[in-house]
């Protein structure tokens, strides 16, 4: 079965929350607040790119991108995440399609780059790499990765939007 990747539309909020909550429900590395993060990003206007995967009229996946701040003053950098796919359809390429389309839209917006906290092997397929010069405090360094869309690379401490709570530096 195929799916359609499209921007979030008014009325998708509850479906996105349900998909996100379900996707992370059994994840041992999760604090199970991802659906609240997406809602808080949306409410604050920080959900810059929000895409859904729709299949047979149902939302089956979602990806969010929001601005991050970097201590070197680099601008136009974004954080990827959360990315969610309903468990019965994980490992079918939906998450990859959402991420690729989201990164493409960031490039079109003129973004300088993107950061992600996640599995290096998975996110490496999109071009993300660990750079010791770019830091997210409180996480294993190898799991924090960057993808520059040009030069120069960002260097310094990254701060996510306050909606992320535990991964936000004050």
Please explain how this structure is put together.
The chain is an alpha+beta fold. The protein has a single domain, classed as Aminopeptidase, CATH 3.40.630.30. Helices cover 26% and strands 28% of the residues. Strand 2 and strand 3 form a beta hairpin. Helix 1 packs antiparallel against helix 2.
In short:
With 170 residues, the protein is of the alpha+beta class. The protein has helices at residues 13-24, 34-44, 94-109, 120-124, and strands at residues 4-7, 49-55, 58-67, 69-70, 77-85, 113-117, 134-135, 144-148, 156-159.
Helix segment count?
4
Total E-strand runs: 9
Mean residue pLDDT: 91
CATH class: Alpha Beta
Sum up the structure in keywords.
single chain; 170 residues; alpha+beta; Aminopeptidase; six-stranded mixed beta sheet; 4 helices; 28% strand; globular; disordered C terminus
Task: Please write out the topology.
Layout: E1 4-7, H1 13-24, H2 34-44, E2 49-55, E3 58-67, E4 69-70, E5 77-85, H3 94-109, E6 113-117, H4 120-124, E7 134-135, E8 144-148, E9 156-159
Parallel strand pairs: 5-6, 7-9
Antiparallel strand pairs: 1-2, 2-3, 3-5, 4-9, 6-8
Helix pairs in contact: 1-2
């Amino acid at each position: 079965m195929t799916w359609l990747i499209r921007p979030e539309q008014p009325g998708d909020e509850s479906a996105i929350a349900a998909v996100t909550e379900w996707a992370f429900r059994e994840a041992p590395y999760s604090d199970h607040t991802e659906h609240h993060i997406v809602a808080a990003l949306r409410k604050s206007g920080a959900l810059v790119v929000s895409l859904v995967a729709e299949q047979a009229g149902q939302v089956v996946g979602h990806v969010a991108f929001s601005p991050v701040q970097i201590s070197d003053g680099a601008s136009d950098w974004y954080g990827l995440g959360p990315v969610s796919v309903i468990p019965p359809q994980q490992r079918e390429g939906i998450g990859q399609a959402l991420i690729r389309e989201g990164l493409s839209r960031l490039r079109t917006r003129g973004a300088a780059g993107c950061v992600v906290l996640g599995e290096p092997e998975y996110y490496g397929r999109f071009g993300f790499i660990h750079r010791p010069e770019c830091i997210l405090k409180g996480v294993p360094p190898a799991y924090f990765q960057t993808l520059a869309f040009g030069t120069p690379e960002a260097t310094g401490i990254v701060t996510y939007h306050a909606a992320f709570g535990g991964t936000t530096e004050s």
